[in-house]
Amino acid sequence: MTAVLPTVEASTLVVNVQIALPRDTPAAERAFALADRLHALAVDDADADRVSTTVLVLADETGSRPELPPSPVPDLMLLADRRVALLDGVLLHLTRLEYDLLLYLTDNIGRVLTRGQLLRQVWGYTVASGGRTVDVHIRRLRAKLGGRGPIITTVRGVGYRMDRGRRVAVVRDPVLTS
């Protein structure tokens, strides 16, 4: 089955996501709910009248699975320019500092960051004092992530590192950042 996409202007951004799921399952319902949330994020803009979203359902009536390349879907998605965090497609409620800390950790996945580095970069402290503040915020982030998505690992005597980078996506809007 072939999908025909409409012709678009050169200044139009088209985002195409393909997810192959069995019909009438909780996973399919979550995919539709995610599409609705993405649409809501897209039209939460002054240009809402110029935004169009479409969910296209391709069904193979023979019951055979379509040949699609595997596409890992991140558990945690950060929409950096909108300051939104989605965990398994559901809005994650974070304080300003929790969000900033999570974004900084994801921007530095795999790197060990000291409490001093985190205090300077996230909190803006010039003197690296108050390491317990970092510990408290890390504990709160871990609780909110609930073991899903990336793992924030403690490196004893040094600081913290975020692991499982393939389970995280940071999306930055090139139109807003240029």
TrEMBL record:
<dbReference type="InterPro" id="IPR039420">
    <property type="entry name" value="WalR-like"/>
</dbReference>
<feature type="DNA-binding region" description="OmpR/PhoB-type">
    <location>
        <begin position="65"/>
        <end position="164"/>
    </location>
</feature>
<keyword id="KW-0597">Phosphoprotein</keyword>
<keyword id="KW-0804">Transcription</keyword>
<keyword id="KW-0902">Two-component regulatory system</keyword>
<feature type="domain" description="OmpR/PhoB-type">
    <location>
        <begin position="65"/>
        <end position="164"/>
    </location>
</feature>
<dbReference type="GO" id="GO:0000156">
    <property type="term" value="F:phosphorelay response regulator activity"/>
</dbReference>
<dbReference type="GO" id="GO:0032993">
    <property type="term" value="C:protein-DNA complex"/>
</dbReference>
<dbReference type="InterPro" id="IPR016032">
    <property type="entry name" value="Sig_transdc_resp-reg_C-effctor"/>
</dbReference>
<dbReference type="GO" id="GO:0005829">
    <property type="term" value="C:cytosol"/>
</dbReference>
<dbReference type="Pfam" id="PF00486">
    <property type="entry name" value="Trans_reg_C"/>
</dbReference>
<dbReference type="InterPro" id="IPR001867">
    <property type="entry name" value="OmpR/PhoB-type_DNA-bd"/>
</dbReference>
<dbReference type="GO" id="GO:0000976">
    <property type="term" value="F:transcription cis-regulatory region binding"/>
</dbReference>
<keyword id="KW-0805">Transcription regulation</keyword>
<dbReference type="InterPro" id="IPR036388">
    <property type="entry name" value="WH-like_DNA-bd_sf"/>
</dbReference>
<dbReference type="GO" id="GO:0006355">
    <property type="term" value="P:regulation of DNA-templated transcription"/>
</dbReference>
<protein>
    <recommendedName>
        <fullName>OmpR/PhoB-type domain-containing protein</fullName>
    </recommendedName>
</protein>
<keyword id="KW-0238">DNA-binding</keyword>
